[in-house]
Description:
Chain A is of the alpha/beta class.
Amino acid sequence: xxxxxxxxxxxxxxxxxxxxxxxxxxxxxxxxxxxxxxxxxxxxxxxxxxxxxxxxxxxxxxxxxxxxxxxxxxxxxxxxxxxxxxxxxxxxxxxxxxxxxxxxxxxxxxxxxxxxxxxxxxxxxxxxxxxxxxxxxxxxxxxxxxxxxxxxxxxxxxxxxxxxxxxxxxxxxxxxxxxxxxxxxxxxxxxxxxxxxxxxxxxxxxxxxxxxxxxxxxxxxxxxxxxxxxxxxxxxxxxxxxxxxxxxxxxxxxxxxxxxxxxxxxxxxxxxxxxxxxxxxxxxxxxxxxxxxxxxxxxxxxxxxxxxxxxxxxxxxxxxxxxxxxxxxxxxxxxxxxxxxxxxxxxxxxxxxxxxxxxxxxxxxxxxxxxxxxxxxxxxxxxxxxxxxxxxxxxxxxxxxxxxxxxxxxxxxxxxxxxxxxxxxxxxxxxxxxxxxxxxxxxxxxxxxxxxxxxxxxxxxxxxxxxxxxxxxxxxxxxxxxxxxxxxxxx
Amino acid sequence: xxxxxxxxxxxxxxxxxxxxxxxxxxxxxxxxxxxxxxxxxxxxxxxxxxxxxxxxxxxxxxxxxxxxxxxxxxxxxxxxxxxxxxxxxxxxxxxxxxxxxxxxxxxxxxxxxxxxxxxxxxxxxxxxxxxxxxxxxxxxxxxxxxxxxxxxxxxxxxxxxxxxxxxxxxxxxxxxxxxxxxxxxxxxxxxxxxxxxxxxxxxxxxxxxxxxxxxx
Lengths: 491, 216
Ligand code: SF4
């Protein structure tokens, strides 16, 4: 795992997106799984979102709450710290991944334990906590079924919501049979690939961990500044197990997860499940405020993580990415993600949100290909429950990549040249007309049966993984001029 | 400098575009959304029952006089015998029969050895089909409704809020809250929904409603 610029974000940016995507596109099984997953969740989301005739008003409120929070983040963080402390919790501040990992390690050490149970958490994935704990001799057990599959397979998540969607039931069965025994209770003999049986094997395997673990690590979906309440949204109950059974709970959350008031949750708890799993409400939502005598952990630690977020906040266009509630709706509507899957993005944050968040967290110079991993079709913006204008941020980051590259060397990059050429042509109707006519003639000359295979020269990267439809014999502009002028002539 | 000061300093530096005299309330938060996605006069109890059932939970309706029989019928249907009970669960509601009742305090391994649990609730949410537990009267601590495989939850009609905003307004955020919408579920294996991974695999809800006596 590389760590450019010592940012401490787990980032596997090599190979760069175009190369990783090309490999992913060759994997027809992956493409079929993804297509089924994204279209199924997309349809469910549309159905339950359309039940609420004030969906747009909810989005507007959510975006406004996030904007208020971002513009006064220092105020709300201090308020959150006070409320959590008053309720019996302890707050820690971590500038980067290394510091967060160190804090968690010391907290675990202080309990004398060498094992922790974990709820799926993007923040801890981002900082590579499990790997760090392993280096320190502490085993972290992922307890979400999909995360368990990913962990047993020494794999990486491919989707925010369904991290193991790239695996088939048979692969999961084989994995359980081969690996569970190394981590604890082995899979039962004769395990079949029936999902109910597989889930039951996971239940048995993990139950002994839940019942004996003394320390749990979680993320947080929200933390409420005025009350100090932390919120975890989940489906399986593994979250509830971790949050209530072990005597020590350590929660790691990005500083952007704070919301101002308890009342604000009425907006997010309506938007998140519907946008994420396409349910009116996810099976379990847990909220806790500090510690409660005789119920749940006796010690609660909240680690507030910066790790590049303040840099993101400093970019007045890019900061809106911090509003993300990790629902994954933008992944499921993205034509690029649907074909490449999450691995190609090289980051724990895949898809459209990954394409804008990762470069900001690791520095655009270290993830220069990601802002280009999009068609700018705008579907992600329409789907986003907190109205993050992802295409706007993408275009903004593309410009930053180009500027950065130009500043670094005298000779302009291929992107800069292409953008410059495109700008010249698009800016001049006459040149555009010529270009379109040339493309139409040249394109038809290259095409076989209406498809063009590999394109020559710099366009190869595009045509490697897809057939390009032959350009139409006449451009839309030509057609429009002809038909409009005919119509106008008729009048 | 501590990391706390460093992070807060970086946040302030990053927000150089925010006028120094701007206060949070200067950033407007419009709240033009609805308080509830129901119409006045809607039958919230029926809506709640339908939406809970949508999650593949089983819903029973009864009035107060039929409650004990309804509990007995639900437990019989599930074949559960050894049941965990919150410390303050009203004894008067318990049916007599083949059941053994184990009152809190119970250690987690004891809970794990029981078949199920019977509790009251703090609130219901009609539009989302959600039961809310706040560990208050008759609900027990959180482990009680989590570890045993079957949860039978009793919700009174007057506890049912129309929608999420009203429900949150009624609840006390200083208590640990659990919002339960159907049994534990996963869709992680080829998106096939499987009920029950770690939480209770079966959820029964009895709605106590004086206007809809449907005795078992
Ligand atoms: S960017 Fe928006 S749509 Fe995408 S995961 Fe975040 S909140 Fe969801």
